[in-house]
Amino acid sequence: MTQRKALRGLDFETLRHAIERCDPDLILGFYSEEANLSIVNAQAQQSSPFELCGKPEIAKHLRAAFGQETSHRVEGEVVGEDRVTFREACKYPDGSELAVETTLEVRDGKIVRQVDVVATNPQAERDAGVGQRPPPRNTHPETRPGMEVPPLDRLLR
Description:
disordered N terminus, single chain, 6-stranded mixed sheet, 157 residues, alpha+beta
């Protein structure tokens, strides 16, 4: 059954194991020869992504990323036949953290395109409530924060 699954789609459980065990060689086996990897800095989204083309360039990146003493945890995965998304939480010995939101495009069980959106210090963002609060209430431009917005009929007079 595992062999049939690997022929049709990506064997995500093995990929998860490779990521969490920091095994760049096993991870590299999931990429097609012509794969592309784009890395976007979440704090600088207007800048161009860092692009890697082909398995040899991706191999250098994986060995650098997984060669350090880091812990990697995969969570929130959504696995489809030709697309996989997941979040990777990375923790470094100095206490710093990264969160990587990954989208994989898969063909014939191999990764052909990967887009990573990397956020530094995700714990600080969670502590600050980034993305967790509703947008602020709109107030009338003539009121100060904490003041009630005048009823519309009073504004029209």
